[in-house]
Design goal:
single chain; mainly alpha; Cbb3-type cytochrome oxidase assembly protein CcoS; Cyt_oxidase_maturation_cbb3; transmembrane
């Protein structure tokens, strides 16, 4: 029983920490342009190499 009393506050604290990190990332604009980063890999800006 003492194990549960020890683990429940830890689990709640980690959950609140994760929720806080999620709201921080929303506020800082991490989820503004989800498609831009995915499509940026397809843009070929390198000049061709002359051999």
């Amino acid at each position: 029983m003492t194990g549960i009393a020890f683990l429940i506050p830890i689990a709640l604290g980690l959950g609140l920490l994760g929720l806080g990190a999620f709201f921080w990332s929303l506020r800082s604009g991490q989820f503004e342009d989800l498609d831009g980063a995915a499509l940026r890999i397809l843009i070929d800006e390198d000049a061709p190499v002359d051999e």
